[in-house]
């Protein structure tokens, strides 16, 4: 955990820092505002990297990008209950504060040693839910009442169809984070592509003076997109978890060969998904991994509306979600993953660039 040490100042609150670093740990809105104010007057740029903790290389790549272009980087670590549906994994979502703190301290040293960065990690914002929802937490229900930011119809499509409160929760908490930190730039990962479109829409439609920077998806060697939820997979399902990325790559290859028609492009993805599912179904219950396909989409990059065909001058977004089902006939000592290996919903996407005309 973070160490608390005296600031030597007369203020009532001790200055909390991550151990062995100059990274402040800010837990209240007021403490962020107090830290932020002089930087505004000094015209120092501040970047925000919003996360829910359980940090991995994908998060670190966002922080590296933020430090290259900004004087100060704030990383928020907050598992926002409002974006979890009532039947989702809020209770078991991985919380790894000590490892996160160590990763941030290590990265900050790396940033300090590399002369190409404008800034470093200045602060971690790790608020409580009562701090983020001062009027009381409004709840996770679809019909919960409270102050929410909604971005429709975008938030109802794709991820929003499976997770009806998800983007309301994301947009609401991001609006709060942006108002608290007042960053010049915010950094998000391409892995959550619809989330990036929601955030860009939020910034545009509410006239927020913020630049949204999207960084590429960091992947494991076999192509699986890094995700905090991968810890749920366990060894058996991890071997098959690249299936979605491979399906999207098959669709990308069809586009690269000249296909623009939806049926042809998505047919390539479905072909691969069906083939892998058939291979797995033919295995014994002790070996196989079954999954369900939530959706495979070919969408407009600005609206996420489904496309009948790709306009090569504009490109498109291939995305998908699969649910890896819990393994059957678990073997004694088998690594089932975090929290006993519940069903895991994986998402991924590939951008079809507007390269051809
Ligand atoms: N593999 C990745 N590459 C680049 N950015 C990523 C990657 N995974 C997550 N991010 C980005 O990190 C930020 C924080 O995401 P979050 O804390 O939810 O992590 P996550 O791995 O996406 O977790 P989850 O498994 O809950 O989806 C988001 O902007 C997200 O898009
Ligand atoms: C942006 C975010 C931190 C909001 O809670 C979350 O949705 C995430 O981690 O992608
Ligand atoms: N990475 C987005 C956060 C979520 O799925 O809840």
Automatic annotation (TrEMBL):
Catalytic activity field: (R)-pantoate + beta-alanine + ATP = (R)-pantothenate + AMP + diphosphate + H(+)
Family of this protein: Belongs to the pantothenate synthetase family.
Listed Gene3D superfamilies: HUPs, Pantoate-beta-alanine ligase, C-terminal domain
Species: Thermothielavioides terrestris (strain ATCC 38088 / NRRL 8126)
Protein name: Pantoate--beta-alanine ligase
MF annotations from Gene Ontology: ATP binding; pantoate-beta-alanine ligase activity
EC numbers: 6.3.2.1
Pathway participation: Cofactor biosynthesis; (R)-pantothenate biosynthesis; (R)-pantothenate from (R)-pantoate and beta-alanine: step 1/1
Protein's GO biological process: pantothenate biosynthetic process
SUPFAM superfamilies on file: Nucleotidylyl transferase (SSF52374)
InterPro entries listed in its UniProt record: Pantoate_ligase, Pantoate_ligase_C, Rossmann-like_a/b/a_fold
Alphabetic keyword roster: ATP-binding, Ligase, Nucleotide-binding, Pantothenate biosynthesis
């Amino acid at each position: 955990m973070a160490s608390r040490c005296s600031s030597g100042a007369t203020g009532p609150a001790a200055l909390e820092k991550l151990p062995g670093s100059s990274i402040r740990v800010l837990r209240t809105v007021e403490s962020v505002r107090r830290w932020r104010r002089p930087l505004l007057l000094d015209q120092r740029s501040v970047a925000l990297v919003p996360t829910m903790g359980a940090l991995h290389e994908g998060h670190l790549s966002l922080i590296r990008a933020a430090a290259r272009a900004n004087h100060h980087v704030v990383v928020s670590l907050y598992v926002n209950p409002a974006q979890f549906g009532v039947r989702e994994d809020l209770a078991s979502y991985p919380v790894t504060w000590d490892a996160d703190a160590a990763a941030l301290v290590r990265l900050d040293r790396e940033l300090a040693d590399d002369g190409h960065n404008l800034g470093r990690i200045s602060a971690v914002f790790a608020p409580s839910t009562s701090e983020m929802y001062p009027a009381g937490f409004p709840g996770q229900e679809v019909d919960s009442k409270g102050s929410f930011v909604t971005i429709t119809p975008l938030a109802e499509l794709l991820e929003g169809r499976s997770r009806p409160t998800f983007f309301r929760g994301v947009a609401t908490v991001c609006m709060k984070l942006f108002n608290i930190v007042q960053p010049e730039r915010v950094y998000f990962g391409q892995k959550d592509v619809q989330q990036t479109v929601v955030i860009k829409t939020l910034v545009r439609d509410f006239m927020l003076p913020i630049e949204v920077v999207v960084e590429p998806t960091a992947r494991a060697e076999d192509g699986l997109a890094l995700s905090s939820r991968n810890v749920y997979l366990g060894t058996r399902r991890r071997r098959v978890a690249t299936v979605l990325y491979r399906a999207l790559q098959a669709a990308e290859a069809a586009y690269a060969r000249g296909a623009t028609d939806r049926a042809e492009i998505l047919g390539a993805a479905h072909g691969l998904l069906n083939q892998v599912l058939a291979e797995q179904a033919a295995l014994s219950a002790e070996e196989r991994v079954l999954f369900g396909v939530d959706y495979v989409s070919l969408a407009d990059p600005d609206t996420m509306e489904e496309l009948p065909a790709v306009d090569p001058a504009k490109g498109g977004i291939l995305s998908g979600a699969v649910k890896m089902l819990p393994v059957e006939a678990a073997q004694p000592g088998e690594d089932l993953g975090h929290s006993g290996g519940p069903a895991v919903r994986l998402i991924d996407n590939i951008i079809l660039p507007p390269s051809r005309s």
